[in-house]
Backbone:
């Protein structure tokens, strides 16, 4: 199935009006669907969207395929319905009415009807209507009941989008305990009103499969065969993009693990009377650099999944170092001060989280403390896991490197963050806490530990090392001139990254 440039030039965009009562998640759904965290204004106040806003989707960045119109929320459906039932022309038609009647009876210059009229005008010019409902709202409410009565008479195909279908128990929406899921009631009400095209699309918890299903419904409702074809080609493009994101995420985690596994911090020419002091300094430097490296990988993951990361979270923060603030991946050894990227633990993490929360457009993992939890604290419990620190009095060398247990935890945290980002919608910032914990589920992959252990013995694999790192390695006879041609080709860093990334497919699988 192909499309020519000439056909693309003649393509007419499918106009989709996204409608619903105020604060049901229309703008949030469009943010998630378009991967644009900056689209529209989202907050908890009624009537936030005051005018229609258009978000365009282009096929391969060339041809305009969709016009998604975010409309003001319905607020006066009950009043409009009553005016229709009292209208002589509607009475003459035994109560039957259409979109023209709705536009005619609604008061044109009364402030209370301003938002509704703007929404109905967009419905009039749309090819398809997407009606967003919040499944934690009772469909028997007057506003919702009358909105359904109006929509089923507009003469346009309507897709009902269920929002908040995956709302977590920790969400403020369910925190009071008085909010319930009315999905069964919605199913019954929609059938009774002859609405049969229903699609789950949660603005908070993104589902790529639900996204494809929504596009398939739009393609089925498009009148033009060309539009149908290009919409299905767009689905292929989106699947390919999802696969690329997953592949890149596995690479980012693999690159992080190889870098940290092969990294060692070294101090040479250390006398016996100073080795303890130098050992503490080497450990501190190792800690700071490992935290920075993981932080850089997390920023790369955020950007890979389309989240706008600001500037503040990239900066180094100068923090007072208390034992309670130490990153427990590295134990709680006393250090005077630490300058690190992303924080060094729960308390400092909260400070860093606050900075990130203020500068990341469309992304919130809950409170600043939660953000600090994954950018600051690397691992909870277990003591000082990070050091294989030692002093060689003969060579006068102090060295330290990261232990295998900590490296396995870095893998688990990278996998956990990737999964959270893949399913993170771009809805109202404080609606859902997508917590990426310091202790994610362990990743069990056969052969992974052996692959990581192999990297730990190859200082040249890490971009974090300098020439001094070779001082702690035994001389590799395979590097002698002329020997390599008689031995197996030496493994390269890119081979190790590719091997670990391939193993990570078990934990971060491709989409179906």
Residues:
């Amino acid at each position: 199935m192909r499309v020519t440039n000439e056909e693309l030039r003649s393509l007419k965009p499918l106009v989709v009006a996204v409608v619903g009562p105020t604060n049901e998640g229309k703008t949030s759904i469009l943010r998630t669907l378009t991967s644009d965290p900056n689209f529209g204004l989202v907050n908890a106040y009624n009537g936030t969207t005051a005018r229609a806003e258009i978000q365009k989707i282009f096929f391969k960045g060339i041809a305009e395929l969709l016009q998604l119109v975010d409309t003001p929320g319905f607020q006066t459906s009950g009043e409009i319905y009553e005016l229709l039932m009292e209208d002589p022309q509607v009475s003459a038609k035994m109560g039957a009415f259409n979109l023209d009647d709705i536009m005619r009876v609604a008061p044109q210059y009364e402030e209370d009807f301003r938002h509704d009229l703007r929404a109905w005008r967009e419905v009039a010019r749309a090819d398809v209507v997407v009606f967003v409902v919040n499944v934690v709202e009772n469909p028997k409410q007057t506003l919702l009941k009358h909105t359904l009565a109006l929509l089923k008479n507009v003469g346009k195909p309507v897709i009902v989008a269920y929002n908040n279908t995956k709302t977590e128990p920790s969400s403020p929406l369910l925190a009071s305990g008085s909010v319930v899921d009315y999905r069964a009631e919605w199913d019954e009400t929609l059938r009774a009103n002859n609405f049969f095209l229903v699609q789950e699309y949660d603005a908070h918890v993104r589902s790529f499969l639900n996204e494809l299903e929504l596009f398939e419904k739009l393609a089925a409702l498009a009148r033009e065969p060309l539009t149908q074809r290009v919409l299905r080609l767009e689905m292929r493009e989106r699947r390919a993009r999802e696969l690329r994101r997953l592949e890149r995420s596995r690479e980012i985690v693999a690159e992080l693990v190889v870098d940290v596994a092969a990294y060692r911090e070294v101090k040479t020419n250390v006398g016996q009377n100073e080795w303890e002091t130098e050992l503490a300094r080497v450990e501190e430097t190792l800690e700071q650099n490992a935290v920075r490296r993981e932080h850089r990988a997390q920023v790369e993951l955020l950007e890979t999944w389309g989240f706008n990361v600001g500037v503040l979270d990239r900066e180094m923060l100068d923090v007072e170092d208390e034992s309670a603030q130490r990153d427990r991946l590295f134990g709680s050894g006393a250090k005077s001060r630490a300058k690190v990227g992303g924080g060094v633990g729960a308390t400092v993490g909260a400070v860093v989280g606050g900075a990130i929360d203020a500068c990341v457009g469309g992304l919130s993992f809950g409170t600043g403390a939660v953000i600090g939890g994954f950018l600051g604290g690397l691992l909870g419990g277990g003591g000082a896991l990070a050091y294989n620190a030692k002093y060689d009095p003969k060579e006068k060398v102090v060295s330290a490197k990261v232990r295998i247990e900590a490296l396995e935890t870095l893998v688990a945290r990278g996998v956990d963050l990737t999964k959270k980002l893949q399913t993170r919608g771009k809805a109202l910032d404080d609606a859902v806490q997508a917590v990426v914990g310091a202790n994610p589920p362990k990743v069990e992959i056969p052969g992974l530990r052996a692959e990581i252990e192999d990297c730990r013995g190859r200082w040249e694999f890490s971009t974090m090392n300098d020439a001094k790192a070779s001082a702690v390695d035994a001389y590799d006879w395979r590097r002698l001139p002329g020997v390599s041609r008689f031995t197996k080709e030496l493994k390269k860093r890119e081979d190790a990254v590719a091997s670990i990334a391939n193993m990570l497919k078990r934990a971060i699988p491709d989409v179906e």
